Amino acid sequence: MSILGAMFAGVSGLTAQSQAIGMISDNIANVNTVGYKGLRTSFSTLITQSGSQTLHSPGGVQSRPIQSADAQGLLQGTSSETDVAIVGNGFFVVNEAAAPGPGNDYLYTRAGRFTTDENGDLVNADGYYLQGWPLDSTGALPATPGVLSSIQTVNVASLSGNAVPTTTMSLGANLPSTAASGETHSITAQIFDSLGNAHNLQIDFVYDAATPEWDITIQDPTLASTGAVSGTVAGPITRSIAFDGLGAPSAITFPDIDISWTATPAAASTVAVDLGTLGQTDGITQFSGSFSPGFINQDGVRFGNFTGVNIDDDGFVTALFDNGQQQALYKLPLAVFPAPNSLQLRDGNAYLETDGSGSVILLEANTGAAGSVSSFSLEASTVDLADEFTNMIITQRAYSANAKIITTADEMLEELIRIRR
Fold first, then answer.
1. How does the average pLDDT of the chain come out, rounded?
2. Mean pLDDT over residues 172-198, rounded?
3. Gap between the Cα atoms of 82 and 235, Å rounded
4. What is the rounded average pLDDT of the residues 108-124?
5. What is the average pLDDT across 187-214?
6. pLDDT higher than 60, residue 131
7. What are phi and psi of 248, to 5 degrees?
8. Phi then psi for 397, rounded to 5 degrees?
9. Residue of 185, 173, 220, 171 whose CA lies nearest to 200
10. Which of 63-67, 272-276, 300-304 has the lowest mean pLDDT?
């Protein structure tokens, strides 16, 4: 009977609009949820095959949620070095366990608010652990980076910077072209031994008018902290520098400096010194005027303590140390899917791979279909409150109208029953 069909159609309308208001309420509740993707309601008709061309059999309506997992939210700047967002396509890979096993699911999220827990693992507020490719000592990725078994939980615990001994040094200074024979000028450079101890190394330039050239003498180093002699320079070794008529070096004799340390148990050091390029004024020069030191560059550093972690736009997770050293530890993969809107939504604003979404593909940021990583930022929710409140009003009216269908059909049935009286 069409009246009963109308009643059932109204019931289906109530069910569909109830689901719609539920999705709207979820969207509004998550308006401030980082990386949240708003849900949309898709309505479709339910058709009952009519008995003939002149009769209509009411069907109704059904609704289903439409995900927008691939929608881009606005970026919001933050002050946290472990806050990251994705610009473009892709998801961060997370796991519900710090040491993923066979029963732990890999999940995918756009919510990039991570912090370091008591074990040094990067984890979000929902307890999901950030996954990344571990880098070897040369900064290379694992041999098979495209599979989930190549990634592991990002951990920054128990890190310390190594002391790096000085092995190379470059000097720049101007030696006066009017110097008298025997005139001496000195440069003091700070260098480091293999244990990170700082030493002062004095280099003397003595002008020999008879040659004419500048003879170079290396003094024994002293501890930077006390001034006491801390090592012995192998020698005597002849070192000198001569200049052409344009103030540039024409001949440089400067063997490496070999130092045996006496004040510390550090390993012996060999320091290669660069005084500049022959025929060019990029190091030691000889022009008019007074002695003028220019620059001292060396590659050694003291022992460093871990101060924090930084994630750059290519997804590299880098440890920072107070001696200026940086160490790349991990690189964050971006997970892409053939059909991201078919992923299954899970608690904690994360998604699970499904047959409909296709298999996950792990890519480096800024390569192929993957987007880029934005550090010190978070992706905002895609929910627009104006749209949601508008949809709420429409849904409320539609629900009331479907309820009216039921009451009207009920009145018509009551009239039909009264015919028998």
1. 90
2. 95
3. 52
4. 92
5. 95
6. yes
7. -100, 155
8. -65, -40
9. 220
10. 63-67
Name residues whose C-beta falls within 8 Å of residue 1's C-beta, 6 or more positions apart in sequence. Answer: none
- CB 73 within 8 Å of CB 91: no
What one-character DSSP code corresponds to residue 97?
A: S
| Encoded tokens for 256 | 């490496």
All domains of the chain in start order, with CATH = 2-68+382-418 (no CATH), 77-159+306-379 (no CATH), 168-298 (2.60.98.20)
Amino acid at 231: G
Neighbours of 398 (CB within 10 A): 18
- DSSP-derived pairing of the beta strands 284-287 and 168-176: parallel
Question: 49 phi and psi, to 5 degrees?
Answer: -65, 125
Contacts of 367 (CB under 8 A, 6+ apart): none
The amino acid at 108: Y
The pTM of this model reads: 0.70
CB atoms within 10 A of CB 181: 11
CA distances to 17, 172, 405 from 14, rounded to whole Å, are: 5, 83, 10
Task: Provide the terminal-to-terminal Cα distance of the chain, rounded to the nearest Å.
Answer: 21
Q: Which residues contact 22 (CB under 8 A, 6 or more apart)?
A: none
Instruction: Write out the two tokens for 390.
Output: 């508008």
What is the rounded CA–CA span in Å between residue 239 and residue 211?
13
CB atoms closer than 10 angstroms to residue 421: 4
Q: Return all residues near 243 (Cβ < 8 A) that are at least 6 apart.
A: 175, 177, 213, 249, 250, 285, 286
pLDDT digits (tens, 9 = 90+) for 350-363: 999 999 999 999 99
Instruction: List residues bridging with 7 in a β-sheet.
Output: none
In sequence order, what are the residues at sequence separation of 6 or more whose Cβ sits closer than 8 angstroms to the Cβ of residue 311? 81, 82, 84, 317, 318, 332, 373, 375
> Is residue 51 scored above 60 in pLDDT?
no
| Dist. CA 279–CA 266, nearest whole Å | 38
Sequence letter at residue 293: P
Residue 404 token pair: 């009216």
Q: Are strands 213-218 and 198-208 parallel, antiparallel or unpaired?
A: antiparallel
Is 185 within 8 Å of 204 (Cβ atoms)?
A: yes
Q: Which two tokens stand for residue 86?
A: 């994705």
